[in-house]
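Go through this:
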Amino acid sequence: MKIKKISSSPRAILSILVLATGVVNLISSLYPSVLERKQFLSEFLSVEAQYGGRLTALFLGMVLIMLAPAIHRGKKTAYFVIVFTLVISALVHLIKGFDWEESLFNFLLLIPLLKSKNHFSSKSNQVSLKKLPVRMLSIFLVIFAYGISGFFLYSKSVHTQIPIGGILSNIFFTAFLFYNPNLVMYLHQTRWFIESLYLMGSLFYIYTLFSLLSPVFIENNQSDSDRERVKGILGKYIDSPISSFAFDKNKRYFFYKNSVIIYALYGRYCIVLGDPIGPKNEKRQVVTKYTVFCNTNDWIMCFYQIKGEYTKIYKNLHLSVIGIGEETIVKSSDFKLEGSAGKEFRNNLNKIEKIGFYMESWGMFSQLSQFQISSLKRISDTWLQSKGTTEMGFAMGKFDSEVLQYQKILVVKDPLDQIIAFISLIELLDIEIAVDLMRHTKEVPNGIMDYLFTQVILYAKDCNIERVNLGLSPLSGVGDKDNDPIRKKLFRSTIIKLNRSYNFQGLNSFKKKYRPTMEPRFVAYKPTSNLAGIGLALKKALTV
């Protein structure tokens, strides 16, 4: 399956043409028609009808301008609304002043639109569409009830008896066509009433357009069978520590053959957790299928923390790829406490243990007791409070007693056997362990984090696990060089501004003293996407 590049899509050209047609309508409604044509029309149409046509052309021009971006998004409902609007607009131009040039311009645009019908497949929210007729009717009736009451008061203020038929027609023309030259507005109260009808009619149209153009929203019904299917895929193919966060309540699943894509939805923004999980030979296919799925639902997608070895897949599907940092990988076989290379870690280890602190190993093959869970929870709450923050999410670990039951926990105790720090580990198919939670109390000796990291690497070495993943070093190697592209520098400054309290440089320097291998991680997104919106969606994902 081939995905067409957005910049070459006829939708971009059609969007510009629709926008131009809307502008033509606005300009045409501002300038009076040719006098000879108006005189000719006067034999067939009243002055009121011509005036109404002029205001209607103005309104339809605004509709076309508002719908132009939706054409670029490929909205199916917007397509049909625009086709209908162009037909009506072409007729209205003939009514308002026999402006056949503008009418022809509207009709000609229908030709490429009808030929490009297959390019419009993005759906709208089906729930909104199903409820739309009832809601439109309800608003319609409310406007008429309000208008009838108001016109009775209006008729008293102008000392004129208006028949019910006249009241209904006046409400319709005033609220929905925004004109009624027969109304007299010389009192403040009557002027306010008539202008309030304009407002109510405008809100009616705005609500209708919003319902037609809203993206698809799918309820997050994470079933037990889906979770079991994901567990089975993870058990065979998990190759990234962030995949272990697949079971958070905000996660959704997209299955294809033996693979799964894990994502979360924030409005129109769909944030994917890493690369697809599954056989390597299915990755391109599942990304292709998922791209079609997102386009159909009118979602803006972003793949977060993808690996360098798969970036070609995303680029071939015309997605932009930009680095977000580097994953810090320590080879346990290369880590030694002996000699000058290990002096810093050896001295710190001896210092901590000399004053009576020691490490214990919990979990993995033995069930954690309620006392152990409570002890870890106390440490975690204290750490969060001291940092003045809350739990993170999406691609970052958070305290979850159920998840901890399946992890290896290394705890540090003081001379009084009180727990003062712990670190939890994720194991990936016996080839890699990754740091998940790392938390401590306020009263810890200097060097406690180095002590924990050293113990993690030594634990991996004892278990013959080669790779120790110390987690992502955000923005490491991204936009920090003078010759970096502007978009990388802009991305770096944006992330820093969105996370002012986060010490990226300090964290990265801390990890690099373990002499790790740095593996770049990336985000992939549509080049036409709203990067600011993606950034805000990512921030929301990571802080819930």
In short: The mean pLDDT is 78.
